[in-house]
Design brief:
- The structure is a single chain.
- By secondary structure, the chain is α+β, with helices and mostly antiparallel strands.
- The chain has one domain: Sandwich (Jelly Rolls).
- Helices cover 21% and strands 48% of the residues.
- It has a 5-stranded antiparallel beta sheet with strand order 1-2-9-4-7, covered by helices on one side. Strands 6-5-8-3-10 form a 5-stranded antiparallel beta sheet, with helices on one face.
- Strand 5 and strand 6 form a beta hairpin.
- The protein is globular, with a radius of gyration of 16 Å.
Length: 137
């Protein structure tokens, strides 16, 4: 009985992790983008958590308009990106540059270089909400 209960708990945990990864990962894999989730922790603000991920873009790949249930802080690790935040002019960032995206603000990212581009994305988001919401066209 104990083994069966442990198996069920393990399956539930795996299902929860899969739900956390699936929306962003599935979309990313379709467009030449890979995501490596680095850490996820509750923070001192009730109902919020922080999630950190490395996102790698193959040359000329892009991720369309989307938003998050909280703030996103971006640090460009390598390459050259064009970010478009809804209602603002596009911005070009290179390795070492940073960007802040406010909660719920639609935005997109595109690797505009000829090689790989990578970013470190840190999210401060509401718990139990999808990390990524694609904008309907």
């Amino acid at each position: 009985m104990r083994t069966y209960k442990n198996l069920l708990l393990g399956a539930a945990a795996l299902a929860g992790l899969t739900a956390f990864l699936t929306p962003a990962t599935a979309s990313a894999q379709q467009s030449g983008i890979s995501r490596t989730n680095l850490q996820r922790h509750d923070i001192s603000v009730s109902g919020y958590e922080t999630i950190q991920a490395r996102i790698d873009f193959q040359a000329h790949s892009a991720f369309g308009m989307h938003n998050h249930p909280g703030e996103e802080l971006i640090y460009v690790l390598e390459g050259t990106f064009e970010y478009q935040i809804e209602g603002e002019k596009p911005i070009i960032l290179k390795a070492g540059d940073v960007l802040f995206i406010p909660k719920g603000k639609n935005h997109s990212a595109k690797n505009v270089g000829n090689g790989k581009a990578s970013e470190l994305a840190t999210y401060i988001v509401e718990k139990n909400k999808p990390l990524l919401v694609l904008k309907n066209k």
